[in-house]
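Sample entry (79 residues):
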Amino acid sequence: MIDRKLGLFSYRGGAVVQLDQVRFARRLQIGSSSPKLVAVTPGGTKVLKRGNPFDGGVGGVDEILTAVAQGRPDSRDNT
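Predicted structure, serialized as tokens:
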């Protein structure tokens, strides 16, 4: 979960981390042509979504989440 107001990131079974310490990325999956979406934290790498070529994969979600985590407005944000 990303809490933009408090600047925190948390995940199931894990610690709460300052949002500026989190980076989101696409990583290769063994046995699949689609990448998985991961959160890279000081405590390790956490898989958020495993991509699937039949459901559209993870697209550019990693770039959007990283922009949010770093407090940058996303170019696709119309607000």
